[in-house]
Amino acid sequence: MDVMSQLQRQWLEHSAFLRKEGYLDDQFEQLRKLQDESSPDFVVEVVSIFFDDSEKLLNNMARALEQKVVDFKQVDAHVHQFKGSSASIGAMRVKNVCIEFRNYCEAQNLEECLRCAQKLQFEYSVLKTQLEYLFRLEQQIRAAGG
Amino acid sequence: MENGFSSPRSESFPAGLRVLVVDDDPTWLKILEKMLKKCSYEVTICGLAREALKLLRERKDGYDIVISDVNMPDMDGFKLLEHVGLEMDLPVIMMSVDGETSRVMKGVQHGACDYLLKPIRMKELRNIWQHVFRKKIHEIRDIEHHESFEGIRLSINGSEFSDDCIMFSGEDLTSFKKRKDFQNKYDERDYGDHSSTKKHRVVWSVDLHQKFVKAVNQIGFDKVGPKKILDLMNVPWLTRENVASHLQKYRLYLIRLQKENDLKASFGGIKHSDVPSKDTSGGFGLQSSIHTNQNDVANDRDQFSGSNFYGQDLDAKNHDGDREEIVLEPKPDSKKPLTADVPDPQDTRCSQMSFDHSSASLGSDVNYTEFDCSIPKQYPWSECPEVQSKQEHKLLLQLEDGFSQQLPCVPQHYIEIDQLQSGRDISSPIKNEPVLVRCKSHRESHISPKETAIDDFSVQPKSLTAYHQSFEPSSTAISSMKPQAVDLSCITDLESCQRNLISPTDSTFPPFNEDLTVCWLQGDFLNKNFGLPNMEFADYSDHGFVADIPVHLYDTLTSDYECPYDPTEYPIVDQGLFIL
């Protein structure tokens, strides 16, 4: 029980932290609400899909930016897609970087685009780590009988 | 679907509503699926637009509503929207993370019954059943409209298409209503049947639609009417109302596509111009054109044209050096930003409904009216931000000049439009004759002048894009055109083009695919522009410009289907548009 309440407290704290720091917004809450008996792992499933998709998009972006002649429209298309994706799970920080990124794409500012791509990669990695930690806690809680 | 209401399921309506969700984002697909299931809807998810169309076609009556994302890799969401509307007549909801007004506007213009912004909440999804319900109710009303619509068309027998357009889209609401009443009486029996009996939704399969298009081509778009189509199609179970309804949608579809192409073209042009392309300009263009259309419908068209087509960045860019003045000059006070004249929704709707074509081309039309043929005038490019429509027109004109695709038969209208737009100095006088000449000789494959014209015409979409790129030359050429000269030669040529074109090229018209639409669009667009039903036309005739031109153009466009798109141009334009 002690372990359980400890885990739960950790989970709560971490969730609050993620919200407070803007890693996740209300959309994530919406996902939680969708989780029910018929799909008990809904959030984890959705986020997994998001991770897979994101990695692909980030790769596409990187490749597009590596071209000798950068096709900014193409890069923008990828970023736009990523923006939509990040909005789906409420990844607010990631989404904000996307918005900034798109502006630079439009301005065809390669230097800034590269910077944004890096930033995006960073924000995404951080978010992934945070979420994985959260899910691990959930797993442990469940294992502990919660 | 009727079934939704008549089956036992209807008891618990909207539970069990059959929703098809189309989105290339797998995360969203999963979320939406879950949300819709929670609303007790029956959900089918699909990651590709083409796949979705396939599903829809396979299970003709299998879905009640479609929810689709706007940005998809394999097919533009708007295109899917058009297809679904035309073939299946299902309500479609668009969604996107991009909530820019222009995009939403576009969605609505393409027929979306709603536009949701991501992230989507469950409560928004819960209410989507209303669209299904509403559509059912409106189906009957649509039939009425179609009947009257068709009635007007048929009654204008023999007149040029432009006249027809003028008839209906113009201020002829009263006559429209009269005809509507007449039609209503005539079809009262049918109405009665419809309202009392359950209408079976006709699912327009690919085959059926192909038959439809074939029939339309055979008859000739300007002479088309549901009865004629029905007879030609020879589908026993199909009713005139079905055809009428479908015909109207088809028209709207073509108009929208035309608009889209024009927008793309102008946008593409903008992109290609030296002016740095910004979202604003692109989006602006869109907005302006939209506004233009709406405004035109709503207000005095005259006003608009001037303002709309002024001072586009693009134009500014294009003209270098000494441009000749514009022959036609828009009314000075028309220099209003388009946005200022935001049309009221009513008008938009009106235009959308029966006069869609006119609204589509209104932008250009408006310009026309504005034109005062003989007065050359310099207009500052930057005056009116909404260059959009002007651009389009200009493009057409310019096409002749140095582009591979020229629209030789570009009627006066174009020239005039150009003038409107040209705050810029357009250096070389555009002569109609050259245009015509070009028309004739321009295509390699030309067999005859007429054919050439047609070819040029059909290339429109591509031309437009190409046009945009080489904006300068054409504008100059066009602007200085002398109306009279142009008129005569143009008309002549156009006429010949028209005659030539009239022979339907069934074979060249692919059944409902994008190419077709593009071509149709062009034709439609041109037709509309030129044959603008509104007063613009009337004004033009004063100048000796003839409404004929548009008709001819129209014919040209529709009949000649081979529009060799330049794939490179098109996608660019496309992207440009969407990146807004």
Automatic annotation (TrEMBL), chain A:
Pfam families: Hpt (PF01627). The modification Phosphohistidine is found at residue 80. Keywords: Acetylation, Cytokinin signaling pathway, Cytoplasm, Nucleus, Phosphoprotein, Two-component regulatory system. Its main location: cytoplasm. One of its GO terms (molecular function) is protein histidine kinase binding. It is found in: Cytoplasm, Cytosol; Nucleus. One of its GO terms (cellular component) is cytosol. InterPro entries: AHP1-5/YPD1, HPT_dom_sf, Sig_transdc_His_kin_Hpt_dom. Residues 39-144 form the HPt domain. One of its GO terms (biological process) is cytokinin-activated signaling pathway. Functions as a two-component phosphorelay mediators between cytokinin sensor histidine kinases and response regulators (B-type ARRs). Plays an important role in propagating cytokinin signal transduction. Histidine-containing phosphotransfer domain (HPt) contains an active histidine that mediates the phosphotransfer. This is Histidine-containing phosphotransfer protein. The lineage of its organism: Eukaryota, Viridiplantae, Streptophyta, Embryophyta, Tracheophyta.
From TrEMBL, chain B:
It holds the Pfam family Myb_DNA-binding. Residues 18-133 form the Response regulatory domain. It is found in: Nucleus. It comes from the Eukaryota. Signal peptide: none annotated. Residues 268-316 are annotated as: Disordered. The keyword Protease does not apply. PROSITE patterns: RESPONSE_REGULATORY. It comes from Carya illinoinensis. This is Two-component response regulator. GO terms for cellular component: nucleus. Residues 286-297 have a biased composition (Polar residues).
